[in-house]
Amino acid sequence: MSEPDFDHVAGALERLGGEVPAAEVHGTLCGMICARGAVEPEAWLADVAGAAQAGDLLGQDDRRTLLALHRATSGQLADPELGFAPLLPPDEARLAARTEALGDWCQGFLFGLTRDGARDLKRLPEQSMEVVKDLVNIARVTEYEQHEREEDEAAFVEIVEYVRMGVLLINEELNPTPTDAKQPRLH
């Protein structure tokens, strides 16, 4: 199963009684994976599924949707082709809604990164620390006047790309992949 889209995740969370926005839930998952290297799917699901019980037959499809999100996200963050993207509303959604969701996503990521004392932010590598500082500022985004102009859309796309690449950098610095330099050379 491919990654569920934003609307499916938001609907699943709502039906399961979750109180955190979908973008923030995804950001938290990404931050936790970056901090820990891996997150146990069922434990994460228990955190985000609200009061829904594992045996609740009505919620099984929604639980599967969230587990599919977990699998896809874990795979994307490990993807050498850089296939990761934050889970945000579709491009057809109003720019203000997507901007708010990006702020929620960044807030969730920062929470996930520091959750359970997983990482002391002061110990992050310098480049990662710069990204974290920027994510703090993006997370502070609140409503502001937007005119839905092309330049606003272009700026949003650039910010999302910065967030995407910044998260991949943080993940790589905290969970480095083995390099060819560590493998023996054949002559």
Tell me which CATH architecture applies here: Up-down Bundle
In CATH, the topology is named: Four Helix Bundle (Hemerythrin (Met), subunit A)
> Strand count, sense and closure of the main sheet?
none
User: What is the H/E string?
Assistant: HHHHHHH
Distance between the termini: 42 Å
Please state the CA-atom Rg, rounded to the nearest Å: 17 Å
Task: Describe this protein's structure.
This protein is mainly α and 187 residues long. It has a single domain (6-175), classed as Four Helix Bundle (Hemerythrin (Met), subunit A) (Up-down Bundle), CATH 1.20.120. The protein has seven helices and no strands. The protein has helices at 6-15, 22-36, 41-48, 60-78, 95-114, 126-139, 150-174. α1 packs across α4, α2 packs across α4 (60-78) and α5 packs across α6. It is globular and about 45 Å long.
Descriptive labels:
187 residues, 59% helix, Four Helix Bundle (Hemerythrin (Met), subunit A), 7 helices, globular, mainly alpha
Task: List the SSEs and their pairings.
Layout: H1 6-15, H2 22-36, H3 41-48, H4 60-78, H5 95-114, H6 126-139, H7 150-174
Helix pairs in contact: 1-4, 2-4, 2-5, 2-7, 3-4, 5-6, 5-7, 6-7
Summary, kept brief:
With 187 residues, this protein is mainly α. The protein contains seven helices and no strands.
